[in-house]
Amino acid sequence: MELDPDDVFRDDEDDPENEALRQRASSKELVVYLVDASPKMFSTNCPSEDQKDESHFRIAISCILESLKTQIINRSYDEVAVCFFNTREKKNLQDLNSVFVFNVADREFLDRPTAKFIKELSRLEEFFVKEIGSQHGIVSGSRENSLYNALWVAQALLRKGSAKTADKRILIFTDEDDPFGNIKGGAKADMTRTTLQRVKDAQDLGISIELLPLSQLDREFNVSLFYADLIGLQGEDLAQFVPAAGERMEDMKYQLRKRMFKKRIVRKLTFSVANGVSIEVHTYAFIRPTVLGSITWLDSVTNQPIKIERSFICADTGALMQEPPKHFQTYKNQNVKFSVEELSEIKRVSTGQLRLLGFKPLSCLKDYHNLRPSTFIFPSDEEVIGSTRIFIALHRSMIRLNRFAVAFYGTSSHSQLVALVAQEEIIDSGGQVEPPGMHMICLPYSDDIRHAEELHSGTNAAIPRANEDQIKKAAALIKRIDLKDFSVYQFANPGLQRHYAILQALALEEDDLPEIKDETVPDEEGLARPGVVKAIEEFKLSVYGDKYDESDNAGHKKVSEASKKRKALADGAVQKSAQYNWDALADSGKLKDLTVVELKFYLSAHDLPVSGKKEDLVKRILTHMGK
Amino acid sequence: MHHLLPEVEKICSMIVQKKLVYSKYDEVGVVLFGTEETENELTMEVGGYEHVVVLQNIKVVDGDLVETLKKIPRGTLPGDFLDAIVVGMDMLIKKYSSTNKGKKRLCLITNGLSPIKDPYEGSKEDQVNAIAQQMTSHGMKLESVVVRESVVLDENVSVMEENDRILNLFPKRTCAKMVFVESSTSLLGALKTRSISPVTIFRGDLEISPKLKIKVWVYKKTSEEKFPTLKKYSDKAPSTDKFASHEVKVDFEYKSVEDANKVVPPEQRIKGYQYGPQVVPISADEWDAVKFKPEKSVKVLGFTDSSNIMRHHYMKDVNIFIADPGDQNAILAVSALARAMKEMHKVAILRCVWRQGQGNVVVGALTPNVSDNDHVPDSFYFNVLPFAEDVREFQFPSFSNLPASLLPDEEQQEAADNFVKMLDLAPSDKEEMLQPDFTPNPVLERFYNYLELKSKHPDAAVPPLDKTLKRITEPDPELLAKKKSAIDSLLRHFEVKQNPKLKKSMKRMREKPSGSDEEDNYRRITSKNKVDLIENGVKVEKIGDLTPVQDFELMMSRRDNPEWINRAITEMKNKIHDLIEDSIEGDNYPKALDLLVALRKGCILEQEPKQFNDFLHQLCKFCLEHDLRSFCDFLASKGITLISKTEAVDSDVTEEEARNYLVKREAKPE
User: Fold this and answer.
1) What keywords would UniProt list here (chain A) (predicted)?
2) pLDDT of A458
3) Which ipTM value was assigned to this complex?
4) Cβ of A454 and B213 within 8 Å?
């Protein structure tokens, strides 16, 4: 059976009993993209990356597209709607003018993105003029307010879902910094007022409204004309806004395809500190290998999903049976039976608890004391008041004294000796890099640790050790090839990114695969810099002398015993084989009169397999001779 | 050494028990030294080697060997470990001469406190050299475990130092390893209980640049030993079928979700991946054509400060990089790099593709492992690091931003500091406690012990966790008692209480772990001398009313005095008798039956068929006399029979007689 990869890598701690908790904590995002489709968005051009001019409208669409392609992988349960305003046609539930909600079949206006939706959106330009059309929605003399309409439509779409479980947002793309600029007098004030009122209503319903302004080449988008009031910008933020928004657009386009996980508690634990005093801590899966996403098995003929049915068959009688309640282990020639209860009883040495055993200096935690990803621990006063205070006190002491705690962690199915390493909070310009708390690291037991390094120490001769000079040269080399600001977060998994790219290409029926850059390859250019090359050559000279190129093959020079023997045998066979006139023997049909040993001389001498019956050997020889 | 022997018995029998499961054809012999008697071939052949007893000649492991090791006789004299090593070595040489190189292992367990005799000629060093040479030429390994539990008295210090020096000579001369342990818990973890032949996961170049490649071999350094996978048991085969495998085959069928009757052949299946709400089918061929296919290689991306790598970033079990043992220059190169990295506090960042065709790359950190043993080369540990996708961006409040009510004040902080300092598991004057390298897996130990118990008593209940293993799952009461003041001060300074506002339903189940003695802990600390009493409490001396069957089994399995068996049987008989006598309309019959079944089984196991058979005769007679015929009928209906010759050789009842005994009586009156 193929295992579901999600299941294989499921956290040990992930158990259904916590399902309820998870549900409560999770929330999704509902987003309405409001895209200005006024003629201005099409006429103004600005240079794109590949130096071709692109319209603002196109920039907005491609930004949404990229963001959707990321979202469908990262958070596919989030829902989106794409809505144009200042359009000729109208399509919306309220039947308001100049607002067009873009959609495809089998999908509500606000719904999860589908492949078809993304595909149609990418072909938008082909039918936009014909089916949607662009038209100024706010013209003097008419009471129409397309921006107001658009906000109303968006707000109505976002009525779906409760404000508690969903994060609701409206994103406005426009290059018009003064939408009511061409309206004069009281009408303008009136329109501004009603629009702002509409925005306020939406905000009261828990909807956040964001603006992604598109600046013209010659003139920057002036937020203070109108939008500052709309999104509530003041003072310093005002000046920062436009450049920051530009960055955000870039971010939306180049976001890493990465499945997002909502922060959720994996388990609530009782951490018993000392005689009868226990505090409450929550654990979080902070670092876990990401897997390809769930696999559904399909029938390749119909493309319909299939289900797996498991049945138990008695090997002795062939009878179909229920899942057997007993398991057995063959031991001393008898079958020792265990009931499921007995097995779980054995495993239950300590339950649902984290029990402090003591502290050790950090130097006792060796690099090889690791088995699986760590789990993050953070205190909580939810059930036990006073937990946070003790936790923080211990946390601070452990950091100050350079110590880690040793504890025994037991659940009903798994128990393990663990190290608790206190981690101080680390903050950089981008926010919290490492949260404060403790990391729980599974320690191996004696039988989990192997001693491969001792394997080859059988000889009497001492193992060679590097001398001072060699170490100095190595140090120089290390200094040369230095990754200054290395962070474990910097590499995307090329295999995974490739997978997402393939998936996207197949789902959207794209012709060519997007190129995925493998960030994990070494910097060949950097390695070819003269300074680095010099350091490498000096190290080589110091360690290998002038024999580096020879020793390149050193591994082959010293062949293993077994292969030596094999070689000797083959050599012998060549010699012995030469004593026979094989052609004559074959022609006269006398091969079968030779012994198997004799036949094998020929076979080994010609590097042929020597297995099988005598007839096979003869046949093989004849085939090889071409007879 | 005597007080340690129970622990030695445990680890030795555990080694054999695991061999019975994983390597049934391994051969083991047992040599004791420091015994009153002398019994070994060498003493007969050349003289000397007194007080060394070959308890068990080398033989394929079996159940008897486990039994033998579970009751090692106590010696009376100081033992000479060098003599014992020679005797053991002699046994290996006689049995295998120079075959099986590298598979022969001598394990010495000693406290190293008894003086060794001066050799007839030459010095002790010469003797060790000669032994070491023999070992090397025969391809033997020596593992010495020296137990140093308590402070050594003055007069013994010189002996101890001398012995340590002698034992330390071995690792210098031959393939030998020596470890010191200080507690019974680490003694249990001091020897590998299961041998796994190491396999390289990569052999090839560690590429620092295209111009500098070092030949390395990569092995696993840690790998979790999993709980054994047991087979599912089928009881469908008739009990008469002696060759029944009792195995269960698990069959998988693939069916269309829509039409449950439509079976889809396995080769017609295709994998579908989720893309938004849709599922995109991708065939294996399609996939292979386009998937990420990196070349097999191990490349250094660069070096970085070790502080850039957090300990909690390590993702998996650990690998070890060793220079190709045949390439002297590679050994030097690894040694130079490792030592330089250690001095400079640097780690190397690696990109690894272990095998051709592997669908992904691994990025990890290479950290130096500088060896202090002349015979072990320098090496590197390799830990897998997460990719950007693997790190979840969860935000947590800063501790400093929390309200003061949640933060410790100065006094509290001081109490915590003191607590962390005092509850020290690695004091400078003693062995580090719970060192992973010497800590056995309590769950696996418990499983194999239970397996052994069940092989003898199929109905035995899971015994509580062994006292020595509890030192792993629970805090050490001795340590707690010693540092009581630090603990008390911590408790005084902090207050915890249950949140009263919380509804009961929100509380999660707080199961009590099996074999827990949490409550006991406190009592133990306050009155340490009671500890022994409590521990001894498990030894059953009487069959109680609550768990008579378990009590009986425990009594029967007591090995300290053969009288226990007779006493258990007698007590059990009385219990059954009482039950029947007190029975009102047969209400005690099922209970009595349970006891009778247990008694029957016990009698078969202990080869006491006559005791049971006589009792059954007696019981039936008693029933008939006291108008309790219904009990006999009840027994007959439940298939209770006498113990026949086939079940226990000592019985004089044939199978047929046994079966007909109760039936016959029943048939008549009608």
Assistant:
1) ATP-binding, DNA damage, DNA recombination, DNA repair, DNA-binding, Helicase, Hydrolase, Nucleotide-binding, Nucleus
2) 55
3) 0.75
4) no
> Across the interface, which of A319, A371, A406 has its CB nearest the CB of B317?
A371
Q: CB pairs below 8 Å between A and B: how many?
A: 706
Query: Is residue B175 classed exposed, middle or buried when 0-12, 13-18 and 19+ CB atoms within 10 A define those classes?
Result: buried
A176: phi then psi, degrees, rounded to nearest 5? -95, 105
Segment A253-268 shows an average pLDDT of 69
Alpha-carbon distance A294 to nearest alpha carbon in chain B (angstroms): 6
Closest-CA residue of B relative to A538 is B212
| Tokens 């779409």, residue located | A157
Query: In the structure encoding, which two tokens stand for residue B207, read together?
Result: 């590429």
Alpha-carbon distance A208 to nearest alpha carbon in chain B (angstroms): 21
Q: Give me the percent of chain B exceeding a pLDDT of 70.
A: 90
Question: For position A73, what pLDDT does the model report?
Answer: 80
Neighbouring-strand partners of residue B176: B142
- Check CB contact under 8 Å for B513 and A348: yes
Nearest-CB residue to A389 (from B227, B346, B406): B406
For A16, the token pair is 């259904």
Q: Which of A349-363, A454-468, A609-623, B358-372 has the lowest mean pLDDT?
A: A454-468
d(CA A473, CA A543): 9
* Residue of A483, A566, A149, A489 whose CA lies nearest to A290: A489
Lowest mean pLDDT segment, chosen from A340-354, B332-346, B505-519? B505-519
Return the number of other C-beta atoms located less than 10 Å from residue A618's C-beta: 19
How far apart CA A76 and CA A259 sit, in angstroms, is 9
Question: Inter-chain contact B494–A274, Cβ cutoff 8 Å?
Answer: no
Residue with tokens 């603006």: A211
CA distance linking residue B333 with residue B327, whole number of Å: 10
State whether A396 and B398 contact (CB < 8 Å).
Answer: no
- Strand-pair partners of B367: B381
pLDDT at B365: 93
Instruction: In whole angstroms, give the CA distance from residue B89 to residue B18.
Output: 23
Instruction: Show the CA angle centred on residue B313, arms to residues B307 and B314, nearest 5°.
Output: 110
> Torsion-angle region of residue A223: left (phi > 0), alpha (psi -120 to 50) or beta?
alpha
pLDDT over 60 (residue B288) = yes
Q: B443, A346: Cβ pair inside 8 Å? A: yes
Sign of CA dihedral B422, B424, B428, B430: positive
CB contact under 8 A, B420 and A360: no
| Tokens standing for residue B488 | 């008390």
- State the sign of the Cα–Cα–Cα–Cα dihedral A515, A518, A521, A523: positive
Query: Which residues lie across from A33 on neighbouring strands?
Result: A82, A171
Residue in A314, A358, A493 closest to B433 by CB:
A358
Length of chain B: 670
The pLDDT of residue B409: 87
Average pLDDT value over all residues in chain A: 79
Residues of chain A in contact with residue B512, where contact means CB-CB under 8 angstroms, are 351
Q: Read off the pLDDT of each residue in B480-495 and give the average, rounded to a whole number.
A: 84
Task: Compute the C-alpha angle B274/B279/B282, nearest 5°.
Answer: 95
Whole-number pLDDT of residue A25: 41
Nearest CA in chain A to B523: A275
Cβ contact, residue pair A527, B177, below 8 Å: no
Q: pLDDT tens for residues A541-593?
A: 888 877 776 544 444 444 455 566 667 777 777 788 888 888 888 888 788 88
